[in-house]
Amino acid sequence: MLLRSIYKTSVLLALLALSACSFQPVQPWERDILAQKKMQLEPYPLDAALDEHTYFSKEASRGGAGVGGGGCGCN
Known about the structure:
By secondary structure, the protein is an all-alpha fold. It is 51% helix and 0% strand. The chain contains 3 helices and no strands. The protein has helices spanning 2-20, 31-34, 45-59. It is elongated and about 70 Å long. The chain starts with a helix and ends in a 16-residue tail after the last helix. The model has no long low-confidence stretch (mean pLDDT 75).
């Protein structure tokens, strides 16, 4: 009896989890919202390139632009 109850509960939870996830394709009239510059991964690539060049020139290293802290070793 307990096993049947556990089985029913697990099936119910699985069905609830699957029903909560739905996939809706993006409609053509919604694509203009997703194509805005602020929705891109890097909205201003020229500014990012200039920031990376400045960081490279100051620190004499490449990469790690997402890490805070200065060249003195302090965070």
